[in-house]
Amino acid sequence: MSTVYVTPGTILGANTYGWPKGTKLEYRWFLNGEVFAGGWHETTRVWGPPGPYGKGDKYVVRVKGTLNGQVSYRFSRTYTVR
Q: What residues contact residue 59 under an 8 Å CB cut-off, 6+ apart?
């Protein structure tokens, strides 16, 4: 996967392109390899100071698609905070 550099405050969005019509999509965002509270939406905002997060943090979203009982997953590129 490729890496994209972003700044705090950037809104990241899951790529929903290419899923068959009628597919139920669910989202799970990861920060530095760990799930985080509130990361269940199609978009998330990059965190930054003040707080424990900032430069070098890595965000990835997993999209789960369910259609006719079949489940598949897609992972995004890595978004790294500058």
A: 6, 12, 29, 30, 31, 44, 46, 78, 79, 80, 81
Q: Per DSSP, what are the bridge partners of residue 20?
A: none
Q: What is the spatial distance between Cα 36 and Cα 50, in angstroms, rounded to a whole number?
A: 17
Q: How many CB atoms lie within 10 A of CB 41?
A: 12
Q: What is the pLDDT along the chain (82 residues), one digit of tens a residue?
A: 689 999 999 999 999 999 999 999 999 999 999 999 889 999 999 988 877 788 999 999 999 999 999 999 999 999 999 9
The answer to whether the pTM exceeds 0.85 is yes
Domains of the chain as residue ranges with CATH: 3-81 (2.60.40)
- Residue 2, Cα to own-chain centre: how many angstroms? 14
